[in-house]
Write a structure and sequence with these properties.
Radius of gyration: 19 Å
Oligomer: single chain
Number of helices: 2
Distance between the termini: 63 Å
Helix content: 25-40%
Structural class: mainly alpha
């Protein structure tokens, strides 16, 4: 009799939800604003941003 193995770890996310790690240089004042507002606020601002 064969037993089914449970998958180990978290299931993979779809490509549209995967996050890519990159580096950005900001001044101390800009980082303070990001820290105060939070990462979710920064992501929301970027999502609403219209490139000219």
């Amino acid at each position: 009799m064969e037993t089914l193995k449970k998958p180990i770890g978290r299931p993979p996310k779809p490509a549209s939800e995967k996050l890519e790690q990159r580096s950005i240089r900001l001044t101390a004042a800009q980082w303070a604003k990001v820290d105060a507002a939070g990462l979710s606020a920064l992501r929301m601002l970027i999502n609403h941003w219209r490139v000219k």
